[in-house]
Amino acid sequence: MHAMVLEQPAPVEISPLVDRDLPDPEPGLGQLRVRVRCCAVCRTDLHVVEGDLPFAKSSVIPGHQIVGVVDKVGPSCQHAQIGQRVGIRWLRHTCGNCGFCTRRQENLCDASRYTGYHDDGGYAQACVVPESFAYAIPEKFSDIAAAPLLCAGLIGYRAIQRANVPEQGRLLMVGFGSSAHIVIQLAVHHGYEVFVVAATRN
Fold first, then answer.
1. What CATH number does residue 121 fall under?
2. H/E element holding 136?
3. CB count, 10 Å around CB of 181?
């Protein structure tokens, strides 16, 4: 398979990703192999590529807003079907037992692992993911429309839930990135009065 591999973090302006021809990954216990159809670019991917996050392995394939089709199922998988379209997000493993996990704050789990950072991601023709972290994508979403929902969409949806805005209430959005583009659509749908504060760059 072709893959864009980060071997040494560097500014994106100098194109640090290297095109490599690699063997297809093989799914392990409880994992699926997904043939990638689309992978969006997230700001976190840029942090990984540019070294703003500590390098987690000697080389990595970035990308974590992935939409693709299952083409191989590893041992002990119970639900996934060959040919099923799934999405893969940033969070790909947690312990499931700690206080954070049991309070549905899995992203704070000390054992958490992330796609395109600890393990290879979607800037490739194929990748593997634990079955429990692969999500069925409804047919009404195209691949391209679904990909940003796997990070910006999830973050925005959780944020608006936690804001607990009353009916016909006001919502202040500080910053206007990709999550905010999705949140504002939800806010308008719910009839909120929306205010946005965002910095401008010269």
1. 3.90.180.10
2. strand 134-136
3. 13
Strands 170-174 and 126-130: unpaired
H or E stretch covering 36: strand 31-40
What is the domain extent for residue 136?
2-142
> Tell me: the pLDDT tens digits for 22-71?
999 999 999 999 999 999 999 899 999 999 999 888 899 999 999 999 99
What's the rounded Cα separation, in Å, for the pair 45 and 69? 22
Q: Are residues 122 and 172 in the same domain?
A: no
Tokens 């100098």 found at = 14
Q: How many CB atoms lie within 10 A of CB 44?
A: 18
DSSP H or E run through 48: helix 43-50
Structure-token pair, residue 190 = 């719910």
Assess whether 85 and 19 both reside in one domain: yes
